[in-house]
Amino acid sequence: MRDRTLWTWHLFAGVVILVFLGLHMTIMHLDGTVRVFNPAPGEPIGWDNVAARMQSWFFAVTYVVLLGAALYHGLYGFRNILLELNPGAGLRRLVNVGLSLAGLALFVFGAWVALAAPGAFARMGG
Amino acid sequence: MDTRTYPNRLGPWGWIGGGRWGFERYLYALHRLTGLGLLAYFLLHIFVTSARVFGPESWARSMARVTGPLFTWGEYLVFAAFAFHAVNGIRLALVELGFAVGRPIEPVYPYATSVGRQRPLALAMLVIAGVIAIWGGYNFLLAD
Fold first, then answer.
1. Alpha-carbon distance B104 to A99, whole Å?
2. CA–CA distance, A79 with A93 (Å, rounded to integer)
3. What Rg, from alpha-carbon coordinates, does chain A have?
4. What are the pLDDT digits (tens) for A91-120?
5. Angle ∠(B4,B8,B14) on CA atoms, nearest 5
6. Chain B residue at shortest CA distance from A15
7. In principle, which of A10, A24, B51, B135 could form an S-S bond with B58, CB 3.0–4.6 Å?
8. Distances (CA, A) of B134 to A101, A102, B89
9. Residue A84 CB contacts under 8 Å (≥ 6 apart), including other chains
10. Could you give the ipTM of this predicted complex?
């Protein structure tokens, strides 16, 4: 795939991250002044609040979207930083394949966690 | 991959050295530094927060491993890095897409650069990122 296309996806992923990570940061770190998606009293990382978000398919789906966008944006950015040193073709291929496989593995694991969360909560008797 | 490459005579110094490119070039270096920090945190975050699918005890054990003043400060740094990276990212995207750089002009001596046109956007970005970082800091203080 041409680098121009990959770069365009990098920018697009940045916009997706801006929206969903912005929401995540607001929920988790601005709760003292903007209290959203934290129905129980106490900290956003308190189990009652975590459980409330776990049951929501909105969060399950948006976590998967955020996971994919953040992994792509972050690992593609990391790749560009590494490739600025102009490594040889072999090393270049190793960086490309290694980061792609690492990203894919992390996406599969993270997506499994996000999508299993609502069902796991139901099994806990929630 | 049909990437065209150019000789990089600077080596790793090229990652951070602004040289005569000035202020915006250092903002770009900081953008990369905060990006790498956020990436490192995010990769750990995927594993730490996966404990939630195994129930409240597992979640409590996982959270107990990442508590204390050091983690609180670290988390605030992540928030501040996010504020900078997000707002500076908007600036970089706007500039890359041709906004806020002024109209193209004839290259007539004395030559003008578009850096002067971009500077107000960079300063506004710093103010906005600073306000978000202070807002987050206030919330971190409230939590303590």
1. 39
2. 11
3. 18
4. 999 999 999 999 999 999 999 999 998 888
5. 120
6. B90
7. B51
8. 38, 35, 19
9. B8, B14, B15
10. 0.94
Mutation site, B53, B78, B128, interface A, largest A CB count within 10 A? B53
Q: What residues contact A29, with CB distance under 8 A and at least 6 apart?
A: A44, B75, B79, B136, B139, B140
Nearest to A120 among B15, B53, B136 (CB): B53
Read off the pTM: 0.92
- CB within 8 Å of A117: residues ≥ 6 apart: A54, A59, A60, B52, B53
Residue B66 in tokens: 């990442």
For B40, residues 6+ apart whose C-beta sits below 8 A from its C-beta are: none
Terminal-residue alpha carbon distance, chain B: 50
Residue A60 contacts by C-beta under 8 Å, 6 or more apart in sequence?
Answer: A114, A115, A117, A118
Taking only the tens place, the pLDDT of each residue in A23-74 is 999 999 999 999 999 999 999 999 999 999 999 999 999 999 999 999 999 9
Distance from CA of A109 to the nearest CA of B (A): 8
